[in-house]
Amino acid sequence: MSTTRDYEVEEVRPEPPPPTWWDRVEQGLRRFAPPALRVVIGLVFVWFGLLKVVDRSPVAELLSATLPFVPQGLLLPALGSVEVLLGAALVIGRFRRITLVVTGGHLAGTFLVFVTAPSLAWSDGNPLLLTADGEFVLKNLVLLCAVLMLLGHRRPDGR
């Protein structure tokens, strides 16, 4: 007759090193940066939207050329109003996911200028030689990536 004994083996893990000052900075940034980014994007949308609503936007001609099928008397105030609403929702932080999805769609839509009005975006038809309007639109890639980052970021409460 043989007897066997089961021994439990306790795994010993080394204690992690104490956090450095940079670890604490990174932890604070992980908490602070996403909401700050959301609010700042929202403020930019409110600002640019209000310029359109009051017909003082420097991109009015660019928009008219990009969306020639939309009645011009409707385009600026409607687009500006949507931007103000999106911006306000971003600042407030309500309906976060849907607001970020719609904001991302809006930013992606700005690239229509390269399709419907390429002469305003490129010098001499060369896509490597951007005009000021082309640069203005292309920088929206950064904003679009920021929105995507916010969509992929979980808040501290897990939502």
Automatic annotation (TrEMBL):
Residues passing through the membrane, by range: 36-54, 74-93, 100-121, 136-153
Q: Where in the cell is it found?
A: Membrane
Primary subcellular site in the record, as a coarse category: membrane
* Any one cellular-component term (Gene Ontology): membrane
Q: Does the keyword Transmembrane helix apply?
A: yes
The cross-references to Pfam families, in alphabetical order and at most eight, read:
DoxX
Phylogenetic lineage: Bacteria, Bacillati, Actinomycetota, Actinomycetes, Pseudonocardiales
Write the record's keywords in alphabetical order, separated by commas: Membrane, Transmembrane, Transmembrane helix
Q: Does the keyword DNA repair apply?
A: no
InterPro entries named among the record's database cross-references:
DoxX
Instruction: Tell me what organism the protein belongs to.
Output: Saccharothrix australiensis
Q: How does it sit in the membrane?
A: Multi-pass membrane protein
Specify the protein name: Putative membrane protein YphA (DoxX/SURF4 family)
